[in-house]
Structures are given as structure tokens and as C-alpha cells.
Design a protein that fits this description.
The structure is a single chain. With about 300 residues, this protein is mainly α. The chain has one domain: MetI-like fold (Orthogonal Bundle). Helix content is about 75%, strand content about 0%. The protein has 16 helices and no strands.
Length: about 300
């Protein structure tokens, strides 16, 4: 359904259409076991991140040196309430794991949001007007793509400094190219469609034409790309923190937990295994959900799902 057709529908009908669409999406997700597993795991991670102060059994920074390096589910660990053991400073691993999910989700979601906004804006401009604007934007993107993305982020973070918000801004700003290229290609095709020509003929201003008529019809690939990108950014954030370029070392993060455990990897395996598994399971759940979303938004597969 095009944007012009939607404009002619009453608000009640639009609301009913949205509800029907949500119901259809839920039925499709319910038939996808892997998608449901991904949603369930990701929901647990998000819930624990939001309510970390409630569900965490201990303070993530509280140190008890007499209880240091307690193995998970050992008699002494269970007696003290440290289900997943303690680290080299006697801090509860489960509590640090729960609080660490906050940083991973904040960086993953906000950085991808910044990349999406920049990429969509530049892709719309590049694809709609073309010409010298398209050449400039795409050549800047080509120059940026000439540098490996991870090395580029590490270099910029090393220059501007670490910290949560610096990490979010740097990853967000350097990740726009993929979104811009996808939107540009979609806009090249959409700008010649009949509904765009009709909107031009009735005098719709260009910004409104781009935002209300073209963008809703080309946004689907960006939604899928952004979903998978969140998983990649979570891994990148952990890598930066592991290298000492991430957030403050006092802040519990999954990458920081990996860095703390590398010197104890042969004697206290849980210090690296548990945060590593947290990263693996979270990224896997996002990818499983992204696979379902990609299939659901694919017009050729949608009727099958």
C-alpha cells in the first residue's frame, strides 16, 4: 500500500490496519521456533538490564576478598549466594553480568540508531537528487570503507578517548555508509514510481515527499540491516572494552569482565567463559530474531510465513 493510498484512509481504518498487521506479525513469529527463542532470550537480557537494581543479588562493585575466585555452583559459592561464582576481587559474577548488559544494549541500540539516522538522511539526499551531491556523499563513503571498520573505530576512540558516550558517538558516526548505500539504491528506484510523480504534480514539497511518501516504501531493508548491526556493535563494544578503549574500568561490562579474566583463564575459567557466553547468546538471539524479521518483511516469503 502506497503512502498516497494510506492518506485517504480514515484514522480508524489505519488503526485497524495496524492492529491486523501486528496480529499477523505475531502469528508469523509464533510459527518460527528460532524467532521465538531469540525473542525470549533477548527479552530476558533487556528485562535484566532495565531492572538490574531489582534482580541483581549483589552490588556489581562490592568486593569481598575472602570470597575471591569462588567457582560457580560450588558449595561455598552457593552458601554465600554467588551462584555464578566470584572474580579475583570477590565480586559477584552474576551481578556484574546483569549490570554489564546495560552497557552492551545502550551502545548497541544508540550507536545503530545514530548510524541509521545519518545513513537514511544522506541516502535520501544522494538517491533523490543525484548529481554532484551523490558523487560527494558516495566518494566520502568509499574513502571511509577503504579503512577496516574495526581499526577505524579503534583509532578514533584512541584519539578522542574512551567512555560510554564517546563510544556510542564514534561507532554511530562511522557506521552510516552501509545504510546510506542501501537507501540510495532504493530511492533511485522509488523516485520514478507513479505515486512519487503524483505527489510532485499536486505540489507536495520535497522534504515531505521524501519523508512521508518515499521513506516508508524503502525502509524495510534498513530495519533488517539495523537488527543485525546491533549484534555486531555489541561485539565491537566488548572488543573495545577488552582492549582498554571502552567505558570506565570501574563500570561493569562484558568486555571488561573478559579483560579481568584473561590472566586467570587457566585457573578460574568462569571469569572469561561466563561473559563470553553472555555475548554469544545475546548476539545469537538478535540474529535469530533478525532472520525471522528478514523473512517476514520479504514480499516473496511473507504469504508463506
Amino acid at each position: 500500500m502506497t503512502a498516497n493510498t494510506q492518506a485517504a484512509i480514515s484514522p480508524f481504518q489505519r488503526e485497524r490496519t495496524r492492529l491486523e498487521e501486528l496480529e499477523r506479525a505475531w502469528r508469523s513469529l509464533a510459527r518460527s521456533r528460532l524467532g521465538l527463542i531469540g525473542l525470549f532470550i533477548l527479552g530476558l537480557v533487556v528485562f535484566s538490564a532495565i531492572f538490574a537494581d531489582v534482580v541483581s543479588p549483589f552490588s556489581p562493585t562490592a568486593q569481598t576478598l575472602s570470597d575471591r575466585l569462588l567457582p560457580p555452583f560450588s558449595a561455598r559459592a552457593l552458601e554465600k549466594g554467588h551462584w555464578l561464582g566470584t572474580d579475583h576481587l570477590g565480586r559477584d559474577v552474576l551481578s556484574r553480568l546483569i549490570y554489564g548488559s546495560r552497557v552492551s544494549l545502550i551502545v548497541g541500540i544508540l550507536a545503530v540508531a545514530i548510524s541509521c539516522v545519518l545513513g537514511i538522511l544522506l541516502g535520501l539526499v544522494s538517491g533523490y537528487w543525484g548529481g554532484w551531491l551523490d558523487d560527494i556523499i558516495m566518494r566520502v563513503g568509499d574513502v571511509q570503507l577503504a579503512f577496516p571498520f574495526v581499526l577505524l573505530v579503534i583509532a578514533v576512540v584512541a584519539v578522542v578517548g574512551g567512555g560510554l558516550w564517546n563510544e556510542v558517538i564514534v561507532i554511530g558516526i562511522t557506521g552510516w555508509v552501509g545504510y546510506a548505500r542501501v537507501i540510495r539504491g532504493q530511492v533511485f528506484s522509488a523516485r520514478e514510481k507513479e505515486y512519487v510523480e503524483a505527489a510532485r504534480c499536486i505540489g507536495v514539497r520535497t522534504p515531505i515527499l521524501l519523508v512521508k511518501h518515499i521513506l516508508p516504501n524503502v525502509i524495510t531493508p534498513i530495519i533488517v540491516l539495523a537488527t543485525f548491526s546491533v549484534a555486531g556493535v555489541i561485539i565491537l563494544e566488548a572488543a573495545l572494552t577488552f582492549l582498554g578503549l571502552g567505558v570506565d574500568p570501574k563500570t561493569p561490562t562484558w568486555g571488561g569482565m573478559l579483560a579481568d579474566g584473561r590472566s586467570h583463564i587457566f585457573t578460574s575459567w568462569w571469569m572469561t567463559f561466563i561473559p563470553g557466553m553472555a555475548i554469544f547468546v545475546t548476539v545469537l538471539s538478535i540474529n535469530l530474531l533478525g532472520d525471522w524479521l528478514r523473512d517476514y518483511l520479504d514480499p516473496e516469503l511473507r504469504n508463506v510465513l
